[in-house]
Amino acid sequence: MSNRKKRGAASTLMPQTRPYGTEDVKPTLKTLAELTGLAVTTVSRALADAPQIALETRQRVRRVAEEIGYFPDRAAQRLRTGRTNVISLVLDPHEEILGYATSMINGLTEALRGTPYHLVITPHFSDTPPLDPVRYIMRNRMADGILFTRTEPSDERVKLLLERGFPFICHGRTELATQHPYVDFDNYAFAYEAARKLISAGARKLCIILPPDRFTFAHHMRHGFMTAVREAGVPFEIAGDVTLDSKSEEIRLAMFRLLSETSPPDGFICGGEVSALATMAAAYDKGLHLGSDIHLVAKQTSGLFDQIRPRVETIYEDLAAAGATMGRLLLRRIAEQPQVSELQVLHSI
Amino acid sequence: MSNRKKRGAASTLMPQTRPYGTEDVKPTLKTLAELTGLAVTTVSRALADAPQIALETRQRVRRVAEEIGYFPDRAAQRLRTGRTNVISLVLDPHEEILGYATSMINGLTEALRGTPYHLVITPHFSDTPPLDPVRYIMRNRMADGILFTRTEPSDERVKLLLERGFPFICHGRTELATQHPYVDFDNYAFAYEAARKLISAGARKLCIILPPDRFTFAHHMRHGFMTAVREAGVPFEIAGDVTLDSKSEEIRLAMFRLLSETSPPDGFICGGEVSALATMAAAYDKGLHLGSDIHLVAKQTSGLFDQIRPRVETIYEDLAAAGATMGRLLLRRIAEQPQVSELQVLHSI
DNA sequence: CCGCAAATTTATAACGATATATTTATCGCG
DNA sequence: CGCGATAAATATATCGTTATAAATTTGCGG
After folding, report:
1. Which residue's CA lies closest to nucleotide C14 at its C1' atom?
2. Length B66 CA → D8 C1' (Å)
3. What residues of A are in contact with residue B100 (Cβ under 8 Å)?
4. What pLDDT digit, counting tens, does each position of B158-200 carry?
5. Which of A26, A226, B37, B100 shows the greatest Cβ crowding within 10 Å of its Cβ?
6. Is B140's CB within 8 Å of A96's CB?
């Protein structure tokens, strides 16, 4: 009632003497209500395009909202609705795998584009338990969903998130009985194909540098590798002292040592770009020629290897696509809580 | 008064029959007030360690808070105080400079560690005006401060942010009359030193690949380069068709063409890792030998070039350090609004 | 032109915290 | 014993939004 009387307030839209375009009205629903002579509730629903608000009213409100530059206060929405409109990407330490995070983030932001969702980066510091970031996000209600990488066979994060029913998508699989959503690259196929390529290129003894054994994808790679070498009956070796997470310098030295042994491998599978370069450097330092003395297949996740000479055989993993898929799946999961089975995406090579 | 009576409520801490450790009380100030028999206000201030709350009370509140797993609701705090406890990093498109974003993010998260601040990534899509992300962040009150990169001499973002008095730190400088905070690498020195190195290595004609001309640091690099070549009276060339932002493939082709000309340059300065690799690839394809036929100095921002063979001369820019500095400066700026001069940090080589 | 349903709009009460102003308890001192 | 000063705690209002329930207006058959 009393609001009705205030309809004329619209004329006081710029009461202060200010240059046009710098309206100093506070852009809130309340202001909007005063300007339109409607109730705050009505304005709110009008902007939400609620069908029970007359079309004409909705349009009018929308017009005035635009005029005063109204944008809903995310904090207030968040407090009221309980939704943060945020998803969190847990960034693991030691991800020197060049551009790993960047590619994924690029894909993610593409997936979030046009949605109200934002991406916050939650770091996982190497001196703290892996569960910390996840716990932190849940307890502080920091996000509506979580993304993380480097999944382990019996991943505690997965267990906890499943237990709490908190939306998440992980990059990589577990070996848990319970199904859960994930996005993964077919690292079995990668290693298998890589081995096949090396063998048909003439390599006579293969070597693979694996990720740290605690990660599920290390098992997949090993399995793919083992299957290929066994099928072909080719001698092989698994780089022992060193993993894809090792410092590049260490990898190079380890590979140098390996190449100095009697009957060293001549075919190398590197699951990352840095390890590939380190292996190449070791071979170079050893005076070995890539393509004749030794062969190498690397996993490529950036445009980098297109510029490496001598040319290196690579298998491409599209991390931006993985990020985009993870983002989309997570949003879907947050919105509808669908069956897990729909959400298990395996990016094949 | 009536609250006093409720002191006994502490015994109803877990009224439901639930396994210990899964308290289902809502962890809010209200709950805490009921449990302690204090007023909500008191609890709030107790947790804030306000001196006008008795020490004994503060400790008691803190104990109970811990017991029920209380953590303040960020949305509520944000709504009430107007602070978001968020800083936003605007990620530019086309940052293929491997790990550029990752390094910076790593530094940033290190700087934010232990603070209540979070990092959100606001993408700047290449098909939208550069001002959009900044406008977006300010109007939606998405963050308390903004970080961005690739600063231009007359950067619109800087102008807008200064005008609005919104806290920000940019990576790179402007040429605006007004002072403003920034963190920058000394790209003048980089190019100057690189040219000196090439000349003393025996290069007789220099070439530099610059960033797109719209960025301030392109001017710095050019200036450093020009100063060095003029001082030494050495012939030079500036890669014309191609910039550090060009696709690596294009850079390689351009360099290949350049090397095919009569009396081509034999000393190259590459402001980024990708362009360096592309240049090396072009030389390789041309049959030229690095270190004798041609010389190259690259800017290194990752451990990558330590594994590149033949070895490449590099000058290191520590982007993680830059990120950390930017983070710290921004927090300081948000907190105290200090003099700009304290906030202008130039990372020298 | 009454009355009842459908179409609109509104009032009220949260969400969980904090700023401001006030009240109540405690104490020293004349 | 009472007074003012200090210490400690409290009440109230508010941030900007939305969910719920209630109220009003409108339309239309009878």
Report:
1. A80
2. 23
3. 102
4. 999 999 999 999 999 999 999 999 999 999 999 999 999 999 9
5. B100
6. no
Region B199-220 average pLDDT = 96
**Do A290 and A262 share a structural domain?**
yes
Q: Which of these ranges, A8-12, A60-64, B17-21, B108-112, has the smallest mean pLDDT? A: A8-12
SS (H, E, C) chain B: CHHHHHHHHHHHCCCCCCCCCCCCCCCCHHHHHHHHCCCHHHHHHHHCCCCCCCHHHHHHHHHHHHHHCCCCCHHHHHHHHCCCCEEEEEECCCCCCCCHHHHHHHHHHHHHCCCCCEEEEEECCCCCCCHHHHHHHHHCCCCCEEEECCCCCCCHHHHHHHHHCCCEEEECCCCCCCCCCEEEECHHHHHHHHHHHHHHCCCCCEEEECCCCCCHHHHHHHHHHHHHHHHHCCCEEECCCCCCCCCHHHHHHHHHHHHHCCCCCCEEEECCHHHHHHHHHHHHHCCCCECCCEEEEEEECCCHHHHCCCCCEEEECCHHHHHHHHHHHHHHHHHHCCCHHHHEEEECC
Question: pTM for the whole thing?
Answer: 0.90
**Subunit contact B74:A284, Cβ cutoff 8 A:** no
Q: Range of B277's domain?
A: 185-316
> Is the pLDDT score of A133 beyond 50?
yes
pLDDT confidence of residue B121 = 96
Q: Which nucleotides of D are covered by protein (CB under 7 A)?
A: 7-12, 14-21
Query: The CATH number of the domain where A92 resides is what?
Result: 3.40.50.2300
| Residues B174 and B191 reside in one and the same domain | no
Please provide the average confidence, as pLDDT, over all residues in chain A. 90
Distance B39 CA to D9 C1' (A): 8
Number of domains present in the structure of chain B: 3
Shared domain for B49 and B147, answered yes or no, is no
Those residues whose beta carbons lie under 7 A from strand C are A 1-4, 37-42, 45, 52-54, 57, 76, 79-80; B 26-30, 40-41, 44, 47-48, 70-73, 76-77, 79-81
Residue A207 banded pLDDT, cuts 50, 70, 90: very high
- Which bases of chain C are contacted by protein, using any atom under 7 A from a CB? 7-21
On whether any CB of chain B is under 8 Å from the CB of A302, the answer is yes
- The verdict on A139 touching B (C-beta cutoff 8 Å) is yes
Q: Does one domain contain both A238 and A118?
A: no
Domain contains B7? no
The percentage of chain B sitting over the pLDDT mark of 70, rounded to a whole number, equals 91
Residues A158 and A193 in one domain: no
pLDDT of residue B3: 36
Q: Is residue A11 part of a domain?
A: no
Question: Given a cut of 70, is residue A10 above it in pLDDT?
Answer: no
Same domain, B204 and B101: no
Which one of A74, A75, A99 has the shortest CB-CB distance to B98?
Answer: A99
Residue B146 resides in a domain: yes
The answer as to whether A253 is a domain residue is yes
- A192 and A285 both lie in a single domain: yes
pLDDT 10s digits, B115-143: 999 999 999 999 999 999 999 999 999 99
A193 shares a domain with A307: yes
